[in-house]
Amino acid sequence: VLHHIVGDLWSLVALMDELRLLYVAMRDGGNPQPPSLPELPVTYADYVRAMQLAQQRGDHQRALDYWAHELSGDLPSLDLPRDFPRPARQSFKGATVFQTLEAGLANEVEAFARAQDTTVFVVLLAAYQTLLHRFSGQAQMLVGTPFSGRHLPGTEGVIGDFINMLPLKADFDAAPTFASHVAAVRERLLQAMKHQ
């Protein structure tokens, strides 16, 4: 069991790699000394120090200023239609839904993404926002997406929680076509990544 506050998915992969190295060394080596793992170029404490230094340099303030501007104004709650009334007491039960696109549709999405000079992720995020717009009728909304905060070189093998949740604003009044909405999502995502 790995609580999410201890590590992200990338951390789980690093942990499994380390366990595999240790297992193979102990299985094959017959050495009474425990095997050693390669030295990490960066530790989580180094990452924290780098974030503190960035804050002291004022990088933190620039990011705060960006988000204060990006999230200013009236940000409505998403009001989706319900098929039954909300319970008096929230249960916090959730679910994960996996959807596989058929090969032809997946190829079309990839081709559309290339034509728009963006990624499949951006196209699917724009489609998801469009779906929420259709169901809610709301022209503006926020959709959060998790993003890796591993922008410090050398953090690839570090176990820790590096996830940033990026709130991405959608404005359908400013993007009358799906292609223009995809372009807006791409630009907002790029700016959000610069200001994590």
Secondary-structure map:
Elements: H1 9-29, H2 44-57, H3 59-70, H4 103-115, H5 120-136, E1 140-148, E2 163-171, H6 178-194
What does this structure look like?
A two-stranded antiparallel sheet has the order 1-2. It has six helices and two strands, in the order H-H-H-H-H-E-E-H. The protein is globular and about 65 Å long.
Any key phrases for this structure?
196 residues; mainly alpha; two-stranded antiparallel sheet; 6 helices; 2 strands; 9% strand; globular
Q: Within the largest sheet, what's the order of strands?
A: 1-2
Number of strands: 2
The class by helix and strand makeup works out as mainly alpha
Low-confidence stretches: none
Count of runs of 4 or more consecutive helical residues: 6
How far apart the termini lie comes to 28 Å
Which shape, going by the Cα principal axes? globular
Element pattern in H and E: HHHHHEEH
